[in-house]
Amino acid sequence: MTWRAPEITRTNEPYVGDERTMLEGWLEYQRQTLLMKCAGLTAEQLKTPSVEPSGLTLLGLVRHMSEVERWWFRIRAAGQRLDDIYNTEASPDGDLDDVADADAEADFATFATEVEAVRAAAAGLSLDQTFARPRDGNADEMNVRWVYVHMIEEYARHNGHADLIRERIDGVTGD
Prior knowledge:
The protein is mainly alpha-helical. The protein is built from six helices and two strands; from the N terminus they run αααααββα.
């Protein structure tokens, strides 16, 4: 039997709530939107690039968001010492680039596991908690609130890419 990306029932974004509820709710909505764009596709379809010269794929986006979730919430904000999942020194964009031989089912499981680990790590962090992000020899101070806003933006941008890739694969459109 051919593996297919699981169907998903997306939860509506929150309309009312405190700041944390709104940030977590919108992030979850964006996570589910990415999975919805992949639902029902085979591993080979998930590896289909958008349009030349781009090599961007839906599977690459799922892998990328696993890396980004880990990087911002667990490594930066929570200070956990973790390795990258897909990116290496030899392939710094392995999450996006190295999908030809990737195991889509395993990568979807990794995404789910990473999101659960992020939820657990973020639950213990105040939105006002700050951390340093070393950059170009400087250490920019940022807070957990910024991470939530950035992640919502990152998913929203990539979900636009996912929408176009999905349409190219099988004509499915919509949010």
